[in-house]
Design brief:
about 325 residues
Length: about 325
Amino acid sequence: MSFEHIAIAGAGAWGAALANAAARAGRSVTLLARNAAGAAAMARTRTSPRLPETLLEARVTIAAAEPATLAAQDAVLLAVPAQQLRAASLAIAPALPKDIPVIACAKGIERGTHKFMTEVIAECAPTARPAILSGPSFAAEVARGLPAAVTLAAHEEALAAALARALGSGTFRPYHSTDVRGVEIGGAAKNVLAIAAGIVAGRGLGASAAAALATRGFAELFRFGAALGARPETLTGLSGLGDLMMSCSNAQSRNFSLGIALGRGATPEAASAAGGLVEGAFTAAALVEMARAAKIEMPIAVAVAAILEGSSSVDEAIENLLTRPFRKEG
């Protein structure tokens, strides 16, 4: 399996960052813009409007998403938000070569259907081979070539390993796995928990509370993952604990920044408008609904969902968490 020609569908910050990463790995990269006008503008500036401070590598070609362009690719990375992944998959599906790997690069659960990203790809593009890329990585840092390590999972080990080799370089290191569901759960759940960590920071509750929140939040992530068949080593790895650590402590995380705004008193509407698209804000309700259906206890995630939907204030949510019955750790 030789993946020399790679397309990135989605020319936002993460798409531009992955395009640069793949180019540094020696691949011929096509970054697919939304339309011809957008592609022409990016070709002139050699930047993404979402990441204007970083130039695209010379090996990156910018084009509109047309059938002829997709037909020439060996793999496609879908670098679009989780709630837009279905539309993007449907748009490219008719032009995809049979058995081409399509790698989801979003962290979330589809609202309404409760489907994970590879499930959406499999449904929309049934002849493709779904995979998932996730882990502790900020777009601006990856685009600049700062070191980062992520997890790339596919159901076939040989495919996962080949894709990891194709995208890997001296500064971008994908570890491969066949635990697709575990990687998807880590990315989706940590976004919701990062909002909770931001609320703790915004409310000024202190370092002790922040550590407690991150630790108990990971316990929730682990319970949820274990119930859905994820492997422990995946949940404690880059796409689980690693991504949670990064997202719960850095304002580059939109989820963490949204939580800070909520903790400082902003309404969910105002906080969301100020921070742009925040994956955890869309995933929270779906995560809680799935947890309740499976009888999995996730009180922190429940509190975040309640704050976001307006059924609980920040102070009420904090009080509810702090007055829960004392229990054995686990």
